[in-house]
Amino acid sequence: MSRLRAAFILALLAALTFEAAAHAAPAKELAEVRRIEQTFLPVDTHAVRLDASFGSVVVRGEPRADIAVEIVLSCPAGRDQQVCRQRAARLLLEARNRPKHLALRLKRTPRARIHGIRSIMTVTMPENEAVEIDVRSGNVEISGMQSHLEVDVGTGDTTIFYPQSRVQIVKLDVAFGHANLWLTDGSNIRGTGWPKSLTWRSQGVSHVEVDAGKGVIAVRLMD
User: Fold this and answer.
1) Which of 24, 25, 163, 164 could be stapled to 221 by a disulfide with Cβ–Cβ 3.0 to 4.6 Å?
2) Are 120 and 130 in contact (CB under 8 A)?
3) What is the CA radius of gyration of the chain?
4) Which residue stretches of the chain are H helix?
5) Distance CA 122, CA 48 (A)
6) How far apart are CA 36 and CA 41, in angstroms?
7) Cβ atoms of residues 24 and 171 within 8 Å
8) Strand 47-52 relative to strand 101-108: parallel, antiparallel, unpaired?
């Protein structure tokens, strides 16, 4: 909740800016300018923390031991590709082994500019690891995971597919936007009040928590 209150003004300004931009011009085709790929074999790790100051994050859980990270950096096709490549070259994937967790961050070098660059970070990882995600501006998609999920988004949409049998609690909060939870019986629970909020409990062992400043939160529970 503290994130929501702190992001109140920022989210309002972002909402107005995004809406104006959406009406001003159609989306442009993107051209890939750089791809970062790296694999990690976590040791004594129970959680993975993903930090993206910009861009979207996709997490896919699988029965595997390693963590594969792919970051695709793109620019609108009409832009100066050489300038975009130079800017993309100043972005780094930083990995730090902390006690009990692995921290991964898309980091800018000093004085690096990111104007015009689009980023999609895809992380394919063990399905039983807990995940913490912090995204300033971008979308989040999660599927295949079976442990705790904590997602913090400034501006962007969050979509999660998660097994209902694993859920102990789902907590969704968004200042500007909508929060929706779909159960396996087809019923839909919507967030109410301001900020839009919902809590749902069951008999599982994992929690799914999402806080957003502006965007749409959609959590779909599966058999």
Assistant:
1) 164
2) no
3) 18
4) 2-6, 8-24, 81-88
5) 13
6) 17
7) no
8) parallel
Q: Which two tokens stand for residue 114?
A: 């990111």
Closest-CA residue to 73 (of 108, 116, 106, 33): 33
User: In terms of Cα–Cα distance, which of 197, 201, 159, 160 is closest to 178?
Assistant: 197
Spatial separation of the C-alpha atoms in residues 56 and 135, rounded to whole Å = 7
What is the secondary structure of 57-80 as a DSSP string? EEEEEES-SSEEEEEEEEEETTS-
Instruction: Give the per-residue pLDDT at 113.
Output: 65
d(Cα 118, Cα 116) in Å, to the nearest integer?
A: 7
How many residues in total does the chain contain? 223
pLDDT of residue 144: 98
Distance of alpha carbon 65 from alpha carbon 68, whole angstroms: 10
Q: pLDDT of the chain along its 223 residues, tens only?
A: 445 445 444 544 444 344 434 334 455 688 899 999 999 987 777 899 999 888 999 999 999 999 999 999 998 887 678 888 888 888 989 999 887 889 999 887 655 567 778 999 999 999 999 999 999 999 999 999 999 999 999 999 999 999 999 999 999 999 999 999 999 999 999 999 888 999 999 999 999 999 999 999 999 999 9
Q: Which two tokens stand for residue 17?
A: 């800016």
Identify whether the C-beta of residue 222 lies closer than 8 Å to the C-beta of residue 167: no
| Preceding amide of 63 cis, omega within 30 | no
Distance, CA of 98 to CA of 202 (rounded, Å): 31
